[in-house]
Amino acid sequence: MNITLANAEAALDDVQRDADKLRSRELRKAIAEYIETQRAAIKALRRKMN
């Protein structure tokens, strides 16, 4: 499962890079908030696994 979580984090990084290219400030902000929520969920999963 650690590999899967690492892949999820890498995917979030890819989404962040793509979102940074968007023109809409509101959309970039919404995506950034979603990414932070997902990072918190991944962190919580890591804590539960250890």
Question: In words, what does this structure look like?
Answer:
The chain is mostly helical. The protein has helices at residues 2-20, 25-49. It is elongated, with a radius of gyration of 12 Å.
Spatial shape: elongated
> What share of the residues does DSSP label as strand, in percent?
under 5%
- Flag low-confidence runs: none
**Biggest sheet, in brief?**
none
Regarding quaternary structure, how should these chains be classified? single chain
**Gyration radius, in Å:** 12 Å
Number of strands: 0
Broad structural category? mainly alpha
Compute the separation of the termini in Å. 12 Å
Number of H/I helices = 2
Order of helices and strands: HH
Helix content: over 70%
Mean pLDDT: 92
